[in-house]
């Protein structure tokens, strides 16, 4: 391998590794570019669900494995982060059938046939999701590691309630850790997201 | 009216007008990749044929390794390699005192010590294989606290450290005893801080790949160049055999500054496996084996005249190093002298010892020891204010340093708006009004702190260098090895370059550090990047701009001195013979210069070394070229039934010179306060046999949005003459005073002064019921001693300028 043909970690310009097409995963589990083969692929079971608006099939070794690992390792969607693996930090938050859930606690086998959304699925043809725009505009991130989790939690909130009150916003932000910001600008971003959501063209069908 | 309420005079410093980009809320250059999940953090790296690692750690605080049986692990399908201490260069490493093997040899010294590691096709298989490695130990007596380590005849953590002393130094500058004799009021007490973990939501991780005899490491490190040096030593390799590339860093706070073994083990695994390996700490490992804040026990004695002028300060510091040293001895140095740059002490004495224990090694954490120092010394100041009958802000104002002050350790204060910070913090919290109408169970307190903008401690250099390259498409690339850990450093440096070059910030890119490609830099520590690297980038951009204008002068036929750049276009005036004004896009000028016969690329070089001194063994020497300051005030409410503390409001006014990007600077202050509140109130583990019980976020409580008080953040009107556009550092300062302020506010609210962090409800509850159990004692019996009482001098405190390793 040479530097010119191989994606190097940390080289964001060459980020083609991150969204392995689902069909490829289905056909050759564990051999998609940038995907670690999983143990005992011979006994892998197929898992079908809707992911960011597309039907995917992936073969998992252990249906009891966390959805987080399937997303990150089998599907190459590394936008969803792991911070604790025990359901406390919220960095792994994804949306399953409209509800924000910690994907580290979500058994992969149980999303069979369900609708899963990750941070990779938020950006539409029209650009960033209003929640993402709000975090950019209000400096709602520093290291950015907690950001996908916060963004997904707020996306789920706004889908359920487009005009949440202050208390509800605080409740949702309170559910996810951030070690960098002291939350002030995350709360600003959340309020900004509510405002932007009101003015943004509805893109239900995109989502 | 108290002095704290006097109006604040405008500064009128006669500064040059600042470019428009400076001080504007420029959007982060990395914001979009972070909100979309595209940023590639350590665990997101993927290389073809990459394996995953797992580490076997000691379950004992101290034991001899009798044997290691790796055969069962090696037989597990999917396992590629296993390494133990026998596969290493058997070299000890460490930033200052090499005492750590990459994998244990012969002996383990804390619960979490690395013993062996596995690389397998996926993380699960690696973890299962690690469990199959059988290590036979002979358990040895361990020292599990400072007191046990210091006891007569205590077992030694390292045979070459008699008395378990890893490092020791002291000084007496100005003769404290004579000053105590002349003091009217002397206060004294002992305060103890606790291990605090960085709790970056991203854990430490590395991906390693060898090509022939050279290893590339993609690491979420704060300090790629310093880390490379240490990793090369640990691997027994020459420096040139190691390349470090910084991935996105999901929070650092000192915890990712290259004192732990993870990257070294990752490199060992990749070499033996002949394939790339990724090794990422689990959260449990991060709690067991990173380098948390050093618990420090301070005994403080402070003297004052009856009018409230501070005379002398004497401290005895005992710090828990844990099993290995890392940067702890540098932290102890900073935590012993830094706070003497806050007030005009006439004499200061200290005796500081870093003590080995069989506990998790400690190290650098945002504030670099100063939160522990400011907690203890701040408590003594608070007691003194009460004894003197002077309101705290007034006592601070009476003694605060100013521009031009020089500390007993030769800290030369250039710009200083500490007094402005004190007054404005008092105003922001409504000090006077709240003092006038006291509400039951509510308490008010203030604290102040000083921090550096870079600190000379890794050899006699605290510099940075930068290359600014102008591109034929009219953009600029700022090549500098400092990196980004979340603070927005790359954005700030882009702003500085853009301001000098006259191009939009959006047209500036700042690639990540790669020891092969970017300039040498010490990295993100000691609040140094804005100040030190900012200066280097500013100079490089100035030189690039000069070269651009020289080229444009030839192309546009105008003298370079008459040309200027605005919004990415070079402009010139009308010519002498009636030609109109001229202009050309920056990119066109660069391209024409490149394409001209004998033409050259347009680059500018810049470097800057902090105008500071490498402190001697007694820590005498001006640590930094610029000092930043903060004053913070808080109001708390204590539930009299349970002792639970609620922080209602907190005001912080920081002097960081010119604020280059307000939202970024505010973010540093807000985040630092949150970490300070965690340190003050909730962050700790219960311990059992030398290890934290359930080492995860279930038991270690980081502050959440719900516990944050209402914050009032402000910045002093200030200008640092040696800083880029007048700027200084701001990354750490706001954390430093928080524990002390919360403790003082609790004492003000319910009369209980806690002497051991964190300030839990339980300690306050028992304090309110007159002691038993816990470390809290009612304020009325706090150890404030009258001047007539002559406390025995701390052992060994009278050794002026005693020899020690300079740092
Ligand atoms: S990783 Fe799922 S909650 Fe922390
Ligand atoms: S931005 Fe770093 S953890 Fe939230």
From TrEMBL, chain A:
Record has Metal-binding as a keyword: yes
Compositionally biased residues, Low complexity: 26-41
Biased composition (Basic and acidic residues): 1-10
Keywords attached to this entry: 2Fe-2S, Iron, Iron-sulfur, Metal-binding, Oxidoreductase
Gene Ontology molecular function terms on file: 2 iron, 2 sulfur cluster binding; metal ion binding; oxidoreductase activity
Cited PROSITE patterns: 2FE2S_FER_1, 2FE2S_FER_2
Keyword ATP-binding attached: no
Domain (2Fe-2S ferredoxin-type): residue spans on this chain: 45-122
Superkingdom of origin organism: Bacteria
InterPro entries: 2Fe-2S-bd (IPR002888), 2Fe-2S-bd_dom_sf (IPR036884), 2Fe-2S_ferredoxin-like_sf (IPR036010), 2Fe-2S_ferredoxin-type (IPR001041), 2Fe2S_fd_BS (IPR006058), Beta-grasp_dom_sf (IPR012675), Diverse_Oxidoreductases (IPR051452)
Pfam families from the UniProt entry: Fer2 (PF00111), Fer2_2 (PF01799)
Region (Disordered): 1-41
Protein name per its UniProtKB record: 2Fe-2S ferredoxin-type domain-containing protein
From TrEMBL, chain B:
Limits of the Aldehyde oxidase/xanthine dehydrogenase a/b hammerhead domain: 36-141
SMART domains for the chain: Ald_Xan_dh_C (SM01008)
Low complexity: bias regions: 776-788
InterPro entries, per database record: Ald_Oxase/Xan_DH_a/b, Ald_Oxase/Xan_DH_a/b_sf, Ald_Oxase/xanthine_DH-like, AldOxase/xan_DH_MoCoBD1, AldOxase/xan_DH_MoCoBD2, AldOxase/xan_DH_Mopterin-bd_sf
Gene Ontology terms for molecular function: iron ion binding; oxidoreductase activity
Tree of life domain: Bacteria
Matching Gene3D superfamilies: Aldehyde oxidase/xanthine dehydrogenase, a/b hammerhead, Aldehyde oxidase/xanthine dehydrogenase, molybdopterin binding domain
Region spans: Disordered: 776-807
Protein name: Dehydrogenase
Organism: Streptomyces sulfonofaciens
